[in-house]
TrEMBL record:
Protein name: Pentatricopeptide repeat-containing protein
Keyword line: Hydrolase, Repeat
Primary gene name: PCMP-H24
Mapped PPR repeat ranges: 23-53, 54-88, 116-150, 178-208, 209-243, 271-305, 399-429, 430-464
Biological process per Gene Ontology, one example term: system development
GO molecular function terms noted in the UniProt entry: DNA helicase activity; hydrolase activity; RNA binding
Keyword Aminoacyl-tRNA synthetase in annotation: no
Enzyme class (EC, first level): hydrolase
EC number of the protein: 3.6.4.12
Superkingdom of origin: Eukaryota
Alphabetical list of InterPro entries matching this protein: E_motif (IPR046848), PPR_At4g14850-like_plant (IPR046960), PPR_rpt (IPR002885), TPR-like_helical_dom_sf (IPR011990)
Gene3D superfamilies for the chain: Tetratricopeptide repeat domain
Length: 644
DNA sequence: TGAAGGTGCC
């Protein structure tokens, strides 16, 4: 608040130089204002021009350069300072920490003549931001005196790392327990879906503000407990726009669009956020037309409103309309580009990425995640590496999300060693990062590595989730590690309390079926909760085909064929089982039945990257004449007949 | 009096 007022008076005296005397305060504030606007050169010029400088003026220069990531300039100013105080040291140290020069920061810290609580806090948060929570904790324990900032940075660091046990332990020891810290802990429980813990904490709070209530609203909404959410909402002493929006969002996420819209209508105050929430709720529920109507009715629109409709077209997979909408937008943001890039899973996405950069937009986390996922699905390593270079150049090399996308991209392009290199260099790892690496190994069938990495994940104190176990099961299944796989499936439920999804059941069926234990797989599938059986039966059918088990194949086919979602592939599998047994009549009957249902099997397609171009081909494909298809076939023949 | 360094939620 103070800063804002100072800035306002500074700006108004810029407009009218006679309004305020140009004393040293004026100069110092003006310099900071320039730095805050990113106008580094102007700040520098003013510093040169000012008639008198004091220690604060010099500190402003160090801070300003640090804020604009110009560390060398900050260092130069620091070195030429006539006098320094602890603020000067702290400012430069923060600069080092911001660009990841943690050891330099530590050395500087050791040299500070008179340390105060702020410079201790700066180094602690610097360690935290560089993923070195252990070092942060050591420093925290060594501190001669701690203030509320010290406690809150340490506790929120544990919260952000999802080390909630440690966060709570410290929180209980802390002499400062502000509502905002309570709220941080509360929202973290909410994010992790720990309803019981959130409820307990909420009931213990001495004072609750709108944020506390709103977090609890979100908590109940996410858990699908809309009655409890509505009850809390009705009890709230003061409802703000966020509360109204939270309850509307809750109904939307739980598919109750009518109730959401009714409440939206009742809202006493609607700002843009509520309109945008309602609109994106329509889109989440597949109601693009309704969203468009709302868009037309809105009193004013911002870039989020435009992006929401764009996202609507993309989630309908209508890339053409998305593209047209994108062209018609009065303004675009990085989010608009990201949405469009993630929408087209083809080479067009890579062209768009280049176009975005040329148009002067800075790729951000979402951009890299989207474009790397396209590189991965196109198995385009040349583009993948180009994007990786840009990641490094734009300072995203320590972004956990982007690193996960790189791990996946390298793995899907066949370079699992590069995935490992990225994973090893990560400063901060979360469950998703461990999952990405485990999945990279699983994708390459490296079951031993998968199990080893899982062990170290647990030892590092991370909680596995349903994705972790899916990968463990996949890896075990591919390597025929039946005992390990079954143990995983058991531990998932008993040790970690994770309820298996349809994919997990299918994996177990695959695990048993692949190794020829068809009857066990059949008995297992019968015990799968009925709603989740469909995929398991399909997996079983495929195992019956591989092992030529006609009897169980027929039994299984009866469970899946003719159902709502049965596709051509299933008929083909059954037909192949008959064909393998020489039962040509039955085989062609099944094919006929399939045609009767108007089904076709989609043609399988493969692709390869040659000199940076992705070429796709199907079986018996002769369209790549210009790529010397005859020579390729001769080469393949030679390889196939080579003695082993 | 005011300008410089650290922390914080839906």
């Amino acid at each position: 608040m103070k800063k804002t007022m100072a800035l306002c008076s500074t700006l108004s005296s810029f407009a009218d130089p006679s309004a305020a005397p140009r004393d040293i305060f004026w100069w110092n504030s003006a310099i900071m204002a320039c730095f805050r606007n990113g106008d580094v050169e102007k700040a520098h010029k003013m510093f040169d021009e000012m008639p008198h400088r004091n220690l604060v003026s010099w500190n402003c220069m160090v801070t300003g350069y640090v804020q604009n990531r110009r560390i060398l300039d900050a260092q130069r100013v620091f070195d030429s300072m006539p006098k320094r105080n602890v603020v000067s040291w702290t400012a430069l140290m923060t600069g080092y920490l911001r660009v990841g020069r943690v050891e330099d920061a530590r050395n500087l810290f050791e040299r500070i003549p008179e340390r105060n609580v702020v410079c201790w806090n700066s180094l602690i948060s610097g360690y935290v931001n560089n993923g070195r929570i252990g070092d942060a904790r050591k420093l925290f324990d060594e501190m001669p005196k701690r203030n509320s900032s010290s406690w809150s940075s340490m506790i929120s660091a544990y919260i952000r790392e999802k080390h909630l046990d440690e966060a709570v332990r410290l929180f209980n020891q802390s002499p400062f327990r502000s509502t905002s810290l309570y709220n941080a802990l509360l929202s973290s429980y909410v994010e992790l879906g720990c309803i019981k813990e959130a409820e307990d904490l909420f009931s213990k709070m001495e004072t609750r503000d709108a944020i506390s209530f709103n977090s609890m609203l979100t908590c109940y909404s996410r858990a699908g407990k809309m009655e409890l959410a509505k009850q809390l909402f009705d009890e709230m002493p003061v409802k703000d726009v966020v509360s109204w929006t939270a309850i509307v969002r809750g109904y939307l996420q739980n598919g109750n669009v009518a109730q959401a819209f009714a409440l939206f209508d009742e809202m006493p105050i609607r700002d843009l956020m509520s309109w945008n929430t309602m609109m994106s709720g329509f889109i989440q529920n597949g109601m693009l037309d309704e969203a468009c109507n709302l868009f037309d009715e809105m009193p004013e629109r911002d870039i989020v409103s435009w992006n929401t409709i764009l996202q609507g077209y993309i989630s309908k997979n209508d890339i053409l309309s998305a593209r047209r909408w994108f062209e018609s937008m009065p303004k675009r943001s990085e989010t608009s580009w990201n949405a469009l890039i993630s929408g087209c899973q083809s080479e067009d996405a890579l062209a768009l990425f280049c176009e975005m950069v040329r148009a002067g937009f800075k790729p951000n986390q979402g951009t890299f995640v989207a474009v790397l996922s396209v590189c991965a699905s196109l198995v385009s390593i040349v583009c993948g590496i180009m994007v990786h270079v840009r990641v490094l150049r734009t300072g995203y090399e320590h972004d956990t999300c982007v690193m996960c996308s790189l791990i996946t991209m390298y793995s899907q392009c066949g370079l699992v060693d590069d995935s490992v290199r990225v994973f090893d260099r990560m400063l901060k790892r979360d469950t998703i990062a461990w999952n990405a690496m485990i999945s990279a190994y699983a994708y390459h069938g490296l079951a031993t590595e998968v199990l080893r990495l899982y062990e170290s994940m647990i030892q590092s104190g991370f909680h596995p989730d349903h994705v972790t176990f899916l990968n463990l099961l996949l890896a075990c299944s591919h390597k025929g590690l039946i005992d390990e796989g079954c143990r995983c499936f058991q531990s998932m439920q008993e040790e970690w309390g994770i309820v298996p999804k349809a994919e997990h059941y299918s994996c177990v069926v695959d695990l048993l079926g692949r190794s020829g234990f068809i009857e066990q797989a059949y008995r297992f599938t019968q015990k799968v909760p009925e709603k989740l059986q469909k995929n398991a039966w399909e997996t079983l059918l495929s195992a019956c085909r591989v092992h030529g088990n006609l009897e169980l194949g027929e039994l299984t086919a009866r469970r899946v064929l003719g159902g709502e979602n049965s596709d051509g592939g299933l008929y083909v599998q059954l037909s192949n089982i008959y064909a393998a047994k020489g039962k040509w009549g039955e085989a062609s009957n099944v094919r006929a039945l399939m045609e009767e249902h108007g089904l076709k099997k989609e043609i399988g397609c493969s692709w390869i990257e040659v000199k940076g171009k992705v070429l796709s081909f199907v079986s018996n494909d002769h369209k790549h004449r210009d790529h010397q298809v005859d020579q390729m076939c001769r080469e393949l023949d030679q390889i196939s007949f080579m003695p082993e």
